[in-house]
Amino acid sequence: MYVAVKGGEAAIANAHRLLADRRRGDRTLPSITIQQVVEQLGLAVDRVMAEASLYDRELAALAVRQARGDMIEAIFILRAYRTTLPRFGYSEPVDTATMKVERRVSATYKDLPGGQLLGPTFDYTHRLLDPSLIDDASVKEPAVKEPGERVMRVSDILDGEGLIEGDGRMPEGHVMGDLTREPMEFPMARDLRLQALARGDEGFLLALAYSTQRGYGRTHPFVGEVRIGEVEVELDLPELGFAVSLGVIRVTECQMVNQFMGSAKQPPQFTRGYGLVFGQSERKAMSMSLVDRALRTDEFSEDIVAPAQDQEFVISHADNVQATGFVEHLKLPHYVDFQAELDLVRRMRRDYDAARTGGPDDLKEAAE
Questions:
Q1: Can you say how many angstroms the Cα of residue 242 is from the centroid of all Cα atoms in its chain?
Q2: What value, to the nearest 5°, has the Cα angle with vertex 103 and ends 102 and 106?
């Protein structure tokens, strides 16, 4: 129970006005436009879309601007807006094998059908500040056009030799879940786990993925493939009898391959960890695939020995909107609760001091 605070409504209104003033910044500078955010802060926009579970670049850019660049606040804003939208149906699973690839790299094979496509990446930059970017005139037109090719998957090469598990399939009769409409229950099937990881916090998943590489999980991963490109989204219309295209979206897909020594029921082979996220977000897709493989302990009769393998721990703490709400609610008034604890600590302190001054017998009695 919270006590009433006089003048709270006026103070909140003033805080909103001050926030709007700080958001606008120096009035002598032009206001940043939504399209500028979309085009020039694209990776921030992609992260907000992914973790808010809403593919709309302009709305994500609006959230980034409204949140003054606070990514989790922007995710919170966009996810709240998402809950107001009507649900028309569920799209067909996207076929990433037909992706028009603009970037595609593999750490397992040097020479690939279709080749390695470096695309736009920070991988080979020196991480040094570039003062020339201060001057907009220094930005040049791209020398080459993005490829947009369709290329085979690296996993198909291993699959041709029977050395990797097949594409994941759910049990016969399994109905795909919807994490946004159903309460979480554990143990959780892989389709729901992947949904939770896809919209989980990038930093949290990165830390868990890092922990698996440091020995806190049974993984010895290789990047089978990371690819970025456009895929078509289709919606099945029963009245037509076939699926129609809704458009294309850009996604990042990662398949990690991990050595598996085999068991009584399964031969030695490579197993997969899978990651698929909106936009260009390689770090997130790679982290997701590492954690996905770590969570598959029941499929391979592995012991749970690390946090990244504990699905209840991972899924319950991966959502940054929930985590933010729980942590930041501590800023709200807790006056009554604190006063109760303050009185308790004062009584305990008086008893403690009395026992110390009353002699060993009194101290022993107080301890008991």
A1: 33
A2: 145
User: What are the CA-CA distances from residue 323 to residues 92, 187, 263 (Å)?
Assistant: 31, 21, 38
Edge-first strand listing for the sheet containing 242-260: 100-105, 221-237, 242-260, 269-278
pLDDT, one tens digit per residue, over 107-160 is 999 888 888 999 999 999 999 998 888 877 555 665 555 556 788 888 888 888
d(CA 229, CA 249): 8
pLDDT tens column, 67-82: 999 999 999 999 999 9
In contact, 202 and 284? CB cutoff 8 Å:
yes
In Å, how far are 210, 221, 224, 268, 295 from 107, measured between CA atoms?
Answer: 18, 10, 6, 21, 23
**Two structure tokens written together for 219:** 């993984």
Q: Which helix (H) or strand (E) holds 218?
A: none
Q: Which amino acid is it at 345?
A: V
Q: What secondary structure letter does DSSP report for 114?
A: T
Q: How far apart are CA 158 and CA 70, in angstroms?
A: 42
Write down the pTM of the prediction: 0.89
Dihedral angle sign, alpha carbons of residues 256, 261, 267, 268: positive
- Strand 269-278 to strand 242-260: parallel, antiparallel, or no bridges (unpaired)? antiparallel
Query: Per the structure block, which two tokens stand in for 190?
Result: 């892989």
Single-letter code of the amino acid located at 366 = A
